[in-house]
User: What shape does this take?
Amino acid sequence: MPEEATAVEIRPHLRLLHGMRKPANWLQLVRFGLVGGIGFVVNLAVYALFVHPIGADYHVAAVAAWLVAVLNNFALNRHWTFDARDGQVRFQAIRFLAVSVVAFGFSLLLLTLLVESAGVAKVPAQALAVAASTPLNFLGNKLWSFRATA
Assistant: This one.
């Protein structure tokens, strides 16, 4: 007979339900939302600056806005949201960047669809695209970028 595992694996949906019962996780989500709100404003301000006064292509403007916002959000999330100052900043930054690139790719795809296919104006389309990528960002950063070490 094969050896039985001593620990029972918790299925992802049960892990999520268990995590939702912890008040600290809700506080962390609120903090992430506040940081995201600041990053959202920074992102839209830089985007609007590049699109309107500078006259850059909206894809270029989205990249510039993302770069400024991701630097801002990394610092705030590392120190305030996830209180991950004990972790190695280099590894956290690489992971944060990877999660951010995936979320940015999703938002850029959605931005292009909204502008080109749905005819949504560029700045509102950017707002919708960034908002839609927020859950992906939170989960990636909580579970990977800034996860607590055992």
About this structure: The two ends are 32 Å apart (CA to CA). The mean pLDDT is 86.
